Amino acid sequence: MIEHIRQRIAHAPRIPLGVWPTPFMAMDHLRETIGSSCPRLWVKREDLTPLGAGGNKVRKLEFVLARAMAEGADVLLNTGEVQSNQVVQTAAAAAHLGIPCELFLGCMDPPLSEDEKDTGNILLCRILGARIHLLPPGEDRAAAMRTRAEELKKEGRHPYIIPRGSSTQEGSLGSLSCFFELLEQAVEHDFVPDAIVVTVGSSGTTAGFLVGAQAMRRTMNRKIGIWAFDVFGSEYPVSAHDRIMSHAEESWRSLELPGNCGEDSLHLSGEFVGPGYCRPYQGMLDAVRLVAGAEGFVADPNYTGKCLAGLLHLLRSGVFRPDQNIVYLHSGGLPALFAMHRYFN
Ligand SMILES: *Cc1c(COP(=O)(O)O)cnc(C)c1O
Questions:
Q1: Fewer Cβ atoms within 10 A, N terminus or C terminus of the chain?
Q2: CA-CA distance, 232 to 230, in Å (whole number)?
């Protein structure tokens, strides 16, 4: 089963946008900070992919854009919140491939800061040459994007709408390839992870990791827990559990694996969302500062910082044994921090 999945990834259409593998490092100082009962801690730096300001969407886009280009796309359309990480990585990929990109960005209500429209990710989108349609809070961004796609078609263009978070069947292959890359890096350090800690947004990343973990469980009886922290809460029309499982089962089927994917490896928590998507809280701010001070890298306030708050809670409540190995996936997002400076200052 594992070899079959590896072959499927190896033969899937893919446009190179990254340099792989992304770095994999021990977090020994964080471990010392937590104390003697702390398991061995590692971080996979998926934030260090080379387009835009990096992040986990680059690997998904390698597969998603292969399909877009095969379908003749000559302009990419994407939507997100004003500080979306996904759209920067799309803008960067479009620039890299030499095709135009239009972004439909929604302002926040209340705004994240007085300069949420000028700094952080949106600034990068502008510099990367994307055309930005900035919409007031509450406006239907997806509808505006579809209307624009129709207009472009009438002009004889081939617009391609990148689905939310690039979480499609193709995108899952990207996340699955990240999972296997992480396993290889762990094995180079003489361990198989007991747990991998990830952030749940549109959920394609978690779904890809779950498919990998379930395949390892079925074929090698290796139990790798996927500890997943949701950051959307009730603001997403589909619950985190349901969107993870529908993506995971779809990916399982499209890989033609026997039976169902199932969820025995999944540990999902919605307890670290805080007041809402892109809304900060003290535990997140403390977690970002603690890890920055201990390890010298900075998590973002909207995704990986909330996941870190969840990870620290697990470590402090003694869920893991000191001889276990826990890997934290840093999936990117740093630029959004600059639009939220007032919370850190
Ligand atoms: C998009 C994103 C995630 C979540 O990934 P999904 O595949 O959408 O669930 C996590 N962290 C960061 C920084 C992101 O930008």
A1: C
A2: 6
Q: Residue 78 in 3-state DSSP? A: strand
Asked if residue 159 has a cis previous peptide bond (ω within 30° of 0), the answer is no
- The pLDDT assigned to 196 comes to 98
Asked whether the predicted pLDDT for residue 237 surpasses 90, the reply is no
Distances in whole angstroms, Cα of residue 190 to Cα of each of 47, 186, 202: 24, 6, 32
Q: Is 84 a catalytic residue?
A: yes
Give the neighbor-by-neighbor strand order of the sheet with 325-330: 24-26, 40-45, 325-330, 195-200, 225-230, 266-269
Residues 6+ apart with CB under 8 A from 190: none
Q: Which of 278, 243, 230, 312 is nearest to 107 (CA)?
A: 278
Same structural domain, 79 and 42: no
- Say how many domains are in the chain: 2
Single out the residue in 130, 162, 194 at which a domain terminates.
162
**Residue with the larger pLDDT of the pair 163 and 143:** 143
Q: Mean per-residue pLDDT for 67-81?
A: 96
φ/ψ (deg, to 5) at 101: -140, 135
Select which of 37, 84, 177, 203 is catalytic: 84
Residue 250, domain extent: 1-54+168-343
| Residues with a CB atom less than 6 Å from ligand 1 | 55-56, 85-86, 165, 167, 199-206, 300, 303-304, 331-333
